Amino acid sequence: MPTTHGATGTARDDRPMTTERPTMSDAHTQPTTETNRDETACDGPTWYDLLGFQRDLLLVAVEVEGEELPKGLTLKRRLDDRYSDPINHGRLYTNLSELEEEGLIEKEDFDGRTNAYRVTDRGRELLPGHRDVITDSLAKLEIFVFENVVLDG
């Protein structure tokens, strides 16, 4: 149990250290030598380095290509259809700029007033790896459900 020591009132945990495996709740505090970076990938952010909103923005930008002009308001409209609250313009354009700085999206002037946003090759490289993670996770979920519902059921 933590105790308070000294004049500063700082807390110190006097519990003995254990060699037990960390649980999900304390795994983030455990040291690790693992990295979340794909060693085969180019320099730059990984899928998991991006904010969730930036991932969604990247996916929407890919979906829009070939269907309609991928301008900011088009991307915003697509995102508004997915989120429960409307997307703020500042949030949209700040994240588009950050994706552009990372080399995942490129901006091109369309008519002097409107910009179009296209996913770069680097941005496209991130997508298949994410698809594989989702596919693997869903397969594991199906096995878990089968084993726990069908076999135990």
Layout: helices, strands, pairs:
Layout: E1 2-5, E2 10-13, H1 52-64, H2 72-82, H3 89-101, E3 105-109, E4 115-119, H4 121-150
Antiparallel strand pairs: 1-2, 3-4
Ranges where pLDDT stays below 50 over 5 or more residues in a row are 21-41
Counting DSSP E segments of at least 2 residues, the number of strands comes to 4
Order of helices and strands: EEHHHEEH
Envelope shape: elongated
Q: Based on helices, strands and strand pairing, what is the structural class?
A: alpha+beta
Q: What is the averaged pLDDT score?
A: 76
Percent range for helical residues?
40-55%
Description of the molecule:
- This protein has 153 residues and is of the alpha+beta class.
- The chain contains 4 helices and 4 strands, in the order E-E-H-H-H-E-E-H.
- Helix 1 crosses helix 3 (89-101).
- A two-stranded antiparallel sheet has the order 1-2. It has a two-stranded antiparallel ribbon with strand order 3-4.
Give me some keywords for this one.
two-stranded antiparallel sheet, 153 residues, alpha+beta, 4 helices
In short:
This protein is of the alpha+beta class and 153 residues long. The chain has helices at residues 52-64, 72-82, 89-101, 121-150, and strands spanning 2-5, 10-13, 105-109, 115-119.
